[in-house]
Amino acid sequence: MDVTILGIESSCDDTSAAVIRNGVILSNVISNQDVHFQYGGVVPELASRAHQQNIIPVVEAALKRANIDKSELSAIAFTRGPGLMGSLLVGTSFAKGFSLALGIPMVEVNHLKAHVLAHFIKESEDDTNQPQFPFLCLLVSGGNSQIILVRSYNDMEVIGQTIDDAAGEAFDKCAKVMGLGYPGGPVVDRLAKEGNPLRFKFNKPQISGFNYSFSGLKTSFLYLIRDELKENPNFIEENKEDLCASLQYTVIEILMDKLRKAAKELGIKEVAVAGGVSANSGLRAAFEDHAKRFGWKIHIPKFAFTTDNAGMVAITGYYKYLDKEFCGMDAAPFSRVIM
Ligand code: KG4
Asked: Relative to the CA of 12, which ligand 1 atom is closest?
């Protein structure tokens, strides 16, 4: 019998709904919220209001694009956390209402696990490019930088994570200092292509195990800009390509050094990347390079599945549905990381 899952994602500033049937994606609708651009970051109160406006049109569009009727749904999966509480409440409450109205079960989904399981979204019946267990997944986003050992769909262990800022935060905060807008990661990526990655040297952390730290890099970037601006007020404008290239080079070195260490110590060659920062062209190139040099079998998600999207929620919901892991009407969102 067909298993058809509606996924709902509303953890931050993207309202998204997707339909997955037997693991194959039928639709993945994402509505971005432009309202935050002028504030240089996500404003939680505005995000929840925009979710409230978007959620029903987005779900309708996802069902329409999938060409299915809501009566065909087997279950509804929603992001329970982590994320912004007001945003999560919109998706969670919608899921409860829809589940009650249709008389179908609900599946709660951890946003971070969903990023990892995005690799299992099939684009067609004969799409067999999914990772083999066990594999390592580098999860890099605006809020997280983690190395996850994935043993199965529902057995994941965080073996390393940032002790302060996330990689995306390092990109965004340094970009802000250069006046490049928000989110700065994609702009840094674009400018870095024109710059010299070895021009400026920034601090790299010395911490044990597989953990990360990006606050030292951010501070050393800030100090360089502050000192250079004293000598030359046009320093940023005249050097922004080299600044971006050097920043990106250092972030990627930090990320790959620990990932390589983890892969070597655990003897794993199947390696994936997930989360918003996995859109970075330099990081993608570093993965390709490691595949050649170390024989890694790499998994890089399609752009549509790197940032927050409901396709990843629906696929996670699909595997939990197969295990009959449903949740009750008392499921409440959680804002902080639990994994
Ligand atoms: O996973 P994500 O969409 O959302 C959350 O963290 O909630 O990740 C967003 C992060 C931002 O920090 C953004 O600057 C970064 O991903 N990002 C990039 C690129 N595209 C998005 N960072 C570097 N290069 C990119 N091309």
From this structure: 7
> Cis before residue 134, ω within 30 degrees of 0?
yes
Ligand 1, CB within 6 Å, residue ranges: 12, 141-143, 168, 171-172, 183-186, 189, 275-277, 279-280, 307-308
Q: Are 200 and 242 in contact (CB under 8 A)?
A: yes
Q: Is 105 helix (H, G, I), strand (E, B) or coil?
A: coil
Provide the strand spans (E) within the chain.
Answer: 4-9, 14-21, 24-32, 75-81, 106-110, 135-140, 145-152, 155-161, 270-274, 297-299
Delimit the domains of the chain by residue range.
4-128+305-322, 135-267
**CATH code at 135-267:** 3.30.420.40
The model's pLDDT over 210-248, given as tens digits with 9 standing for 90+, comes to: 999 999 999 999 999 999 999 999 999 999 999 999 999
Closest-CA residue, ligand 1 atom 14, reads 185
How far apart are alpha carbons 219 and 113 in whole angstroms? Answer: 31
Which residue puts its alpha carbon closest to atom 2 of ligand 1?
276
Nearest atom of ligand 1 to the alpha carbon of 279: 26
- Whether residue 30 contacts residue 17, with contact meaning beta carbons closer than 8 Å, is answered with no
What are the angstrom distances between the C-alpha of 181 and each of 174, 188, 247, 258?
Answer: 10, 10, 16, 29
For the chain, give the mean pLDDT. Answer: 95
Q: Does domain 4-128+305-322 have CATH number 3.30.420.40?
A: yes
The tens digit of pLDDT for each residue in 276-335 reads 999 999 999 999 999 999 999 999 988 889 889 999 999 999 999 999 999 999 999 999
Q: Which residues contact 202 (CB under 8 A, 6 or more apart)?
A: 217, 220, 221, 224, 246, 247, 250
The answer to whether 203 and 224 are in contact (CB under 8 A) is no
> Which residue's CA is the closest to the ligand 1 atom numbered 16?
276
CA atoms within 13 A on the CB side of 327: 20
pLDDT of 146 reads 97
